[in-house]
């Protein structure tokens, strides 16, 4: 067995072992490696390309009389083609399909809400904030240290210790003047 044939076999076996391990571990390894945010270098694409390269190279060396240079070029082409096909037929459509209804507390500053429970000058009330996932109630305090009555629209200024610090929304004053 030649050196290049060994490389092909190692790539094939490594890809198959990776597939088996990710199948058994629920994609934990893929998720860890998925922190790479370069779409073309996603682990599934790299591993599928390397596995196809190894498998096609190994089969071509065993089943044909092609020169090693030709086998290498064909195996590289097959590996890249399979990785590109996986990207355009599987990864890219799946990325578009993935949506989340979750949000982070860090996304709340700047959001407009409505006071559900009066916010006392030196205490906590509740604010209703509309998000993609629906409406959520959060504990809230006044940034200015002034009481904010229920029903008033507010703007979230900051979030500390899971408490929204809010101030009255400017259009409340205009409505009150009418």
UniProtKB/TrEMBL annotation:
The chain crosses the membrane at residues 6-26, 38-60, 66-90. The keyword Hydrolase applies. One of its GO terms (molecular function) is peptidase activity. The keyword Repeat does not apply. InterPro entries: NA-bd_OB-fold (IPR012340), NfeD2_TM (IPR058653). GO terms for biological process: proteolysis. It comes from the Bacteria. Residues 3-98 form the Membrane protein NfeD2 N-terminal transmembrane domain. This is Serine protease. It comes from Brevibacillus invocatus. The lineage of its organism: Bacteria, Bacillati, Bacillota, Bacilli, Bacillales.
């Amino acid at each position: 067995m030649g050196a290049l044939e060994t490389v092909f076999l190692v790539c094939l076996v490594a890809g198959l072992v990776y597939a088996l391990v990710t199948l058994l571990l629920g994609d934990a390894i893929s998720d860890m490696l998925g922190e790479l945010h370069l779409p073309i270098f996603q682990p599934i694409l790299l591993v599928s390309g390397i596995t196809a390269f190894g498998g096609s190279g190994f089969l071509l060396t065993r089943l044909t009389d092609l020169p090693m240079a030709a086998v290498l070029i064909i195996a590289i082409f097959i590996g890249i083609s399979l990785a590109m096909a996986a990207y355009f037929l599987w990864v890219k459509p799946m990325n578009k399909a993935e949506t989340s209804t979750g949000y982070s507390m860090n996304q709340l500053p700047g959001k407009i809400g409505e006071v559900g429970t009066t916010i006392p000058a030196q205490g906590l009330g509740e604010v209703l904030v509309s998000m993609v996932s629906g409406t959520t109630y959060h504990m809230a305090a006044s940034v200015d240290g002034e009481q904010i009555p229920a029903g008033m629209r507010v703007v979230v200024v900051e979030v500390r210790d899971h408490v929204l610090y809010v101030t009255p929304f400017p259009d409340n004053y205009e409505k009150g003047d009418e």
